[in-house]
Amino acid sequence: MRRLILCLAAFTLLFSSALGEEEIIAPAYPVPQYVQWLLDVARGELGYTEGRDLYTKYGEWAGDPYAEWCAEFLCWCVDQVDQQYGTRLLTQIYPRYSGMNTGMNWFIRQGRFIARNGVVPDWGSQWFYGEEDRMAVASYIPQPGDWVFYTFDASGNTAHVAMIEYCTQDENGTVTAHVIEGNLPDRVQRNTHQLNDWRVLGYGTVRDLAGVVLNSHSAGIKVERLQEMLSALGYLDAQYITGNYGSATAQAVRSFQADTGKSPTGIANHHTQDTLSAMYWQNYWLDDSHFTVQDN
């Protein structure tokens, strides 16, 4: 962490002198050591250029030496960290993938995706934890190590992915994200985008920073947590703690909403989730069985 701060400080001086008032934004959250390792690996690949017929070592590592290789590059970098430092980041913190939308959908299921427009496709609106209002468009300042997913047309399908190195802000308050990416167009390079760039679909984040509306399209860790709380409060049988938002979960949410004076839609919106979480933790702390010392 100290090394990253020193690097950012040095970069700030370079940016300030070269570009006037543009300065690096300090990360809002502590940067894990593995992110520094990952960025070091990615920086070490800057300038790598694909060979004939799109050949890259990243594609070869992933099983297709001639594939379009933006995702393969990032996944390869994560694997290098795992090999060098004994971490288990690939498939745990970051996905291993190559197909369209697969990486973004993986982060969504892991509960660590923030959409640029504040709405996760097929799910619903998002909010930052601890805030009452829904997330404003382009309000998230990405953190080092986050992955950014781009589209290049109106389909909304992911067409490219890169990794956040840092963000800067100019004298007018405009925030620019600085990324490292592969396949640009034939090599590993640095690039930039502004937070309101329409091509940005959103960010796969290092941390879980935001809630999202849950409904019948939802599946993953956030659904499982919702089901666990519903079950603990007696609204859902434990057999339905599956991570998939099925009919049993929807009915449990409707029952909970009716009991707490909310419209029984069966959709777990922001206020439903906040109320459920508050009741769950209140009951948890009142239940002294969690703190009972068992005699041996």
Describe the protein in words.
By secondary structure, the protein is an alpha+beta fold. The chain has 2 domains: 2-209, no CATH class; 213-287, Muramoyl-pentapeptide Carboxypeptidase, domain 1 (Orthogonal Bundle), CATH 1.10.101. It contains 8 helices and 10 strands. Strands 1, 2, 5, 6, 7, 8 and 9 form a 7-stranded antiparallel β-sheet that branches. A 3-stranded antiparallel β-sheet has the order 3-4-10, with no helix packed on it. Strand 7 and strand 8 form a beta hairpin. Helix 2 crosses helix 4 (70-85). It is globular. The chain starts with a helix and ends in a 10-residue tail after the last helix. Residues 1-19 have low confidence and may be disordered.
Short description:
This protein has 296 residues and is α+β, with helices and mostly antiparallel strands. It is 34% helix and 16% strand. It folds into 2 domains: 208 residues, no CATH class; 75 residues, Muramoyl-pentapeptide Carboxypeptidase, domain 1, CATH 1.10.101.10.
